[in-house]
Write a structure and sequence with these properties.
Order of helices and strands: EEH
Largest sheet: 2 strands, antiparallel
Number of domains: 2
Bound molecules: zinc ion
Strand order of the largest sheet: 1-2
Distance between the termini: 66 Å
Radius of gyration: 21 Å
Helix content: 25-40%
Oligomer: single chain
């Protein structure tokens, strides 16, 4: 299940700095990053096997941003044409 040493289950490898830290803490004392598996030493997958940030959420975020910015740009365009 885990690629880490099974005889030392109370420790886990920090996905950001690679140091072995206590598995029951959420934040690495070495580098201060959260142990979310997102660092350069992580595989991008949480311990429960799910992706921490599915790609669809990022796309939805961009679409949301676009839907907020687009009316402003259109209003500016119309305002610019009136003057
Ligand atoms: Zn760390």
């Amino acid at each position: 299940m885990s690629e880490f040493e099974d005889e030392n289950i109370d420790e886990m490898k920090c996905s950001h700095c690679g140091k072995y830290i206590s598995a029951d803490i959420m934040r690495c004392p070495e580098c201060g990053n959260y142990t979310d598996g997102l660092g350069k030493f992580g595989d991008g997958v949480n311990s429960d096997g799910r992706e921490p940030m599915p790609r669809i959420f990022k796309i939805a975020g961009w679409l949301l941003l676009l839907s907020l910015v687009l009316p402003i740009l259109l209003a500016l365009y119309q305002w610019a044409n009136q003057h």
